């Protein structure tokens, strides 16, 4: 499966670069009896459905021309926005999220909790700092990066 992701990455990246879009993630998964190739793209200000359709058409054309076919089974191609609460998968994603409201899940509890939401204040190689709301005041908490299971953008309520 990782071979498929790499082949698709190599094909889609120049398409995205030409339009100044960002590749967020690629998934190649089996759900039920069907295979899905999902390509998540974004740009500052968000991506719209017409832009997703354009990338889908260009990617589909290029995938159809490959011989031998790197994806031998039938699959559904989906090109979409990662959504408002998208995961932050790369170092660039995390750096670009400084100042944004994020959700983190931890492997091990810190301050009796494994889930935190707050504004990402700073990031370095070993840790990241969030500004959290604690009743009526704001506090900063620092988390070790090797204890972070997942990090994603979040919507603040």
Give an overview in words.
- It is a single chain.
- The model has no long low-confidence stretch (mean pLDDT 93).
- Helix 1 (2-19) packs across helix 2.
- The protein is α+β, with helices and mostly antiparallel strands and 157 residues long.
- 26% of the residues lie in helices and 43% in strands.
- The longest helix is centred in the first third of the chain and has 18 residues, at 2-19.
- The chain is elongated.
- It has two domains: 2-80, 2-Layer Sandwich (GMP Synthetase, Chain A, domain 3), CATH 3.30.300.70; 91-153, Roll (SH3 type barrels), CATH 2.30.30.
Summarize this structure as a short list of keywords or feature phrases:
157 residues; alpha+beta; GMP Synthetase, Chain A, domain 3; SH3 type barrels; 2 domains; three-stranded mixed β-sheet; 3 helices; elongated
The count of strands amounts to 8
Radius of gyration: 18 Å
Query: How far is the first residue's CA from the last residue's CA?
Result: 38 Å
Global structural class: alpha+beta
With helices defined by DSSP (H or I, 4 residues minimum), what is the helix count?
3
Helix-strand sequence: HEEHEHEEEEE
Task: Assign an overall shape.
Answer: elongated
| CATH architecture descriptor name of the largest domain | 2-Layer Sandwich
Low-confidence stretches: none
Main sheet overview = 5 strands, antiparallel
Share of helical residues? 25-40%
Number of domains: 2
Reading off the top of the CATH hierarchy, the class of the largest domain is best stated as Alpha Beta
**In CATH terms, what is the fold-level topology of the largest domain?**
GMP Synthetase, Chain A, domain 3
Strand order of the largest sheet: 7-6-5-4-8
Beta-strand proportion: 35-45%
CATH homologous superfamily of the largest domain, by name? RimP-like superfamily, N-terminal
The whole-number mean of residue pLDDT values reads 93
């Amino acid at each position: 499966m990782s071979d498929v992701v790499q082949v698709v990455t190599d094909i889609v990246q120049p398409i995205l670069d030409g339009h100044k879009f960002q590749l967020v993630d690629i998934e190649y998964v089996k759900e039920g009896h069907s295979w899905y190739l999902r390509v998540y793209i974004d740009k500052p200000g968000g991506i719209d459905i017409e832009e997703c359709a354009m990338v889908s058409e260009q990617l589909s054309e290029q995938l159809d021309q490959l011989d031998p076919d790197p994806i031998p089974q039938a699959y559904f191609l989906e090109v979409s926005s990662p959504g408002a609460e998208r995961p932050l998968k790369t170092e660039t994603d995390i750096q670009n999220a400084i100042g944004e409201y994020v959700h983190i899940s931890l492997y091990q509890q810190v301050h009796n909790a494994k889930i935190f939401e707050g504004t990402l204040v700073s990031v370095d190689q070993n840790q990241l700092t969030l500004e959290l709301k604690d009743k009526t005041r704001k506090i900063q908490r620092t988390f070790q990066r090797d204890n972070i299971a997942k990090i994603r953008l979040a919507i603040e309520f």
